[in-house]
Design brief:
Elements (H helix, E strand, L loop, with lengths): L16 H10 L4 H9 L17 H14 L3 H15 L8 H9 L16 E13 L3 H7 L6 E10 L5 E7 L5 H14 L7 E5 L7 H10 L2 E3 L10 E4 L2 E4 L4 H13 L1 H8 L5 H14 L8 H21 L7
Parallel strand pairs: 1-4, 4-5
Antiparallel strand pairs: 1-2, 2-3, 6-7
Length: about 325
Amino acid sequence: MAQINNNTKTNKKIINWSEYNKSLENRGNFSILLNIAYLSRAPRQTGQAGHPLEYSDAIVLFLAQLREFMQLPIRQTIGMAKFIFKQTGLDLKPPSRSTLSRRLAALNIPSNLDKINFNSPIIFLPDSTGLKVSGEGEWKVRKHGADKRRKWVKVHIALDYATGAILATSVTIPNIDDGHELPGLIRQAIDNSDIDQPISDIIGDGAYDHQVLYKVAKRLGINLLTPPPKNAKWHGDIKGVRLVDEPGWEKRNSYVRDIIRLGRERWKEVSGYHRRSLAETGMSRLKLTFGVKLKSKRIENQVAEVKIRISLLNLFTSYGRPRYAA
């Protein structure tokens, strides 16, 4: 059998350039979102005594989306909105800075997963990254080191391999373990009525190598694929001439045995582990599109910022993705 050269770059040919090019244009066409906001501009009744909300959730959501897409401070976002409304001839008045900030935390942010066509079982790809909340820029850190005021939050997401859609997310403090958040991400996806396919597999890096996660996956009928560490040991006993797995360790033991037999790199190829690279691609896309810093200081608004970014990425995905020649 011919040896595969992993250093050879494969150039895949896109076969839907016209459709994909149009989808890329639509990602910057905010008139689509503006039309939705304008048509839904009726003030929302709160169900409580007093005056109804002056601005609809759709208008507040549009401004929040504009803010994230353009990466503007909140007051500049309002100024940009005034310009857009004037140029389009819409009789809309943006809310004040304090109103927008207050409404952001309680905003119902759509996941936009209802716009994604899930036509195969979900291959669940979790990952995490850090987003900066405050502190000096990267140049200052390179020159003088990070100062004690530099703060971060940790963003956990899970993507679908087939569609690239982000199925679930959570925002935590930086020292929360990835494995700790995985059950919650799974539950988000299972409970979301817009995802009409079951989760068949979870593929994660070594951070998800926990016995409790194997048990959770087994209980839900999901295959968990994650590489054991290099010093991983087989958990079981020898009875006569048979190897007997310790209860709860069956799946992980099979990975340990296969890695011993095939070698770690070959095991990753055979098992399909490399599919998880799409999670890293999705995380890179999140950072390249919206930057590595959150603008809000309150945790509630930080969570809303992350959800809006993910909502926009899912919307962009729904516009169309490249298809490659077989």
